[in-house]
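Table 4 source record.
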Amino acid sequence: MPITVLLVDDQELMRMGLNMVLDAQDDITVVGEASDGAAAVAAVRKLEPDVVLMDVRMPVVDGVSATAQILESGVASRVLVMTTFDLDEHAMGALRAGASGFLLKDTPSEDLVSAIRSVAAGDAVVSPKVTRRLLARFLDDGPAPLRDPEILDVLTEREREVLQLVATGLSNTEIAAQLFLSESTIKSHVGRILTKLNVRDRVQAVVLAYETGLVRPGS
């Protein structure tokens, strides 16, 4: 079955361009469009797309609020946020609301297609470098953690180490090389981390690592 996508952007030309790129793919089908967050929430309830490609700055209801409403509704749809600026507080809000990642609007079309496929498969998509900049910018609220660090007590010492490296923006391949372990072992560690912390994906684990003080901005 093809991956179904809902396009959400207040700019018609942007939606047209995305539609052209995605409809050229054999395994992706655009099932609907929305020009604001309220319409997006209604469309998700009706269409239940695999992936919602969500703009963040829109009239009526913004993309952050729409993302939160979509994910709180319990639908299986996953949200991939698109933003113009890599240091965008709205994008950070969307990640906290449960988005599976975000991309810049000038992302090459082949990377966008790859990101949609990854998100549909259950992975998270955020550029590691952009993740570090975002979290360093918007979670730097002083020395006190935003969440109780004891949340991480369920992790083993190795899992905490892996989470630290994930939070600094390293890929599984890079973590494996640094810890002298196989990539499959790192993938297993990451899977257990997500399960133990009850987070949706890698992005949410990174946010939690910063909010509990396991990793500090700039570290």
